[in-house]
Amino acid sequence: MQRRRMIGLMSAAALSILLPGKFALAAREPAGDAAVLGGLVRTHALPRFDALAGAAGIYAERLAEFAAAPTADGLESCRAAHRAVYEAWAGVQHLRAGPLAMELRADRIAFWPERAGVVQRQILAMLKNRDPKLLEPGGLARQSAAVQGLTVLERLLFDEGVTAAGFQGDEAGRFRGALAAAVAQNVLAITREARDGWKALEAPLTAGEQTALGPDAGSAINVLFTGSLTALQVVADQKLLAPLGPTAAEAKPAVAEALRSGQSSHNVRINLEALRALMLGEGGGPGLTALLPAGDAGAQARRALEDGFTAAVRAAEAIPAPINVAVADPAKRKTVEATLQRAKDLRNLLTGTVAPLLDISIGFNELDGD
Question: What is the CATH code for 2-357?
Fold first, then answer.
């Protein structure tokens, strides 16, 4: 086991001595890339986007019922549905390229990270003005991405002091419920668009044709791989390092994802599990590691990834509280720091070992400059 970990953390240059020659790094063929892409759509992307759209549908139904007749039990049911949608969203966040990148769908589903106060100011303005056009089908889709999705619902349902009574009685209360229901319907529409976008990609990706992921199958593989690196960077830098701060006294818990619903550490675990599925496969389908070259180097790289993801997921599971709580506790923050290190290890493994074996050059990162 120790030897596997050492191999997994080796640099590309060191690992290259295990290969028969430079050509071993360029073993990918267009037909193989296309076959893996078709399998990934069928067994990875589509089931996950189906789950997201399904959870969003249940959420929209519950919020519509709650807005019509607010009760304490109804509010808790909506909160449970919200958490279920966020779990499903965490399971596809690594697939930002393609349908999610179109029409700002990712930001519209969940506007995070956000600039301080942006969402709150816009929500307060909406609740004050009570524009009935926002409640019409498609009305919210014409608004800022900041007020279209789960980030708004986090505040409407989970802000401190929120009770079912806040959705009852006068016009302001009724509008708050109607707005929440409209936002949920907007999230449902966006998730269905993203799911349908992936359905439409299956045939051309399997045929190696040009798609939103690139001009050919090889380019699409590269986009998915580099997208996984971006997703790991989001986990490390934005979801873990940003709230950690230098010390417990200087922690920044307010920047944690899903702050109000308490999903932050849970989402990190799901992110890591989703990335593991993309790399290693799930549902009987291939992962990107199916394209590793045959032989010792490819097998060792795959085993190193298996070990690395196992360690990272276990570290995330060990975080004893939501990240915003854990980072401010000198004892608990150690578990967040351990998860951060495991995520960094994985990214180093992917960039230094797996990418060269797949003949992928790491270039532009969509987070560069942030």
Answer: 1.20.1420.20
